[in-house]
Amino acid sequence: MSETSLKRAIVLLSGGLDSATTLVMATAEGYECHCLSFDYGQRHITEIQYAEVLAKQYDATHRTVRIDIGQFGGSALTDNSIDIPERAEEDGEEGGIPVTYVPARNTIFLSYALGYAEVLEAHDIYIGVNAVDYSGYPDCRPEFISAFETMANLATRIGVEGQAVKIHTPLIDLRKSEIIQAGIELGLDYAQTVSCYQLDTTGRACGRCDSCRIRRAGFVDAGVIDPTRYV
Amino acid sequence: MSETSLKRAIVLLSGGLDSATTLVMATAEGYECHCLSFDYGQRHITEIQYAEVLAKQYDATHRTVRIDIGQFGGSALTDNSIDIPERAEEDGEEGGIPVTYVPARNTIFLSYALGYAEVLEAHDIYIGVNAVDYSGYPDCRPEFISAFETMANLATRIGVEGQAVKIHTPLIDLRKSEIIQAGIELGLDYAQTVSCYQLDTTGRACGRCDSCRIRRAGFVDAGVIDPTRYV
To answer: Which of A63, A69, A71 sits opposite B71 (nearest CB)?
Structure first.
């Protein structure tokens, strides 16, 4: 396929396991991928370096957008005064919204992706949200994505001119183990991804935060060796 | 009314005529106002200083959020390689979307407002969009606002917990002259607002860009002296 015939897609790429798998899937579907990472004052900023390396490996462009969510406070991921919980049951009420939830994060990320899509005349946006393991985050649910897509088509030049904007969520119904299996089938090396909310200075994962626990269990369920370096 | 009994609102405040009127309206409706301005690499950055002064005058808090829309390009307002048109008919096709349109701007602005609303536990967001004079901008239409509100209530903790998020657009159906009349009735001094897309170094408006022309005509239609200093 010649370069000019490729369809363009915007891929939200954090450097984590889910978004890396999403990039590999979008690439496999034949898109020319343009990746966006966000520096929003998160504690786990190292993941952006992983994102940059991954994008390069998959012949995708990569931009990092600095955003000011941190100045608002309100999340354990951007506010150092809130402890990161080590087990889900410490994280507020059962079935409630975790303290690691960042207010309106996916709304803000997708809004930037939408603006970038307009400029590049791309109609496809990929985001690695997952409703199974992160059911406590309201902005990871299919009904949120669907409402965003409807809004996006009313908000923009590309939507108004009848070339619909599509928000792709290839992971939304997959279990973590299924995501890992899909990525491995497409040749993704998960050593190049990072999940931990609080990596140490040598790049080792804590192994105890929610994100580490879900990742570890996913590799066990998938029957695959977890290449992560843990403390 | 005691301070603790005030309901909180987030007000998007650019320092322009429309958003200043919106702030005054929200204040008159009894809200404790928390204003957000955006520094997005726009040419008319001076307006943020006007926003700061206005917020202070109305006992509102004020934050400026730096956002990276400019790095995407694609608009005459953020891209110096695109000329600002002096008459609407130069601005692309008749009835089309103006080159001064910034991709996904209101979507991004409202997304930040939504995140800030969550942190402050505010359920009300004010935005001074207007569908009459700016009908070429897709993200100024009532159907866009309505779709954003639906999405916002699915995206957030405050929405999910049943306390609906409301996007207020008090200007949406008003002509410019009606906006000016409403602001004057509420005591707003329009010398404290700025509309021009390309103010000169002494703060004088060009008088020729679309925004100046609409402002001037609005004051004429309202039968009110325009306090703006023009070149």
So the answer is: A63
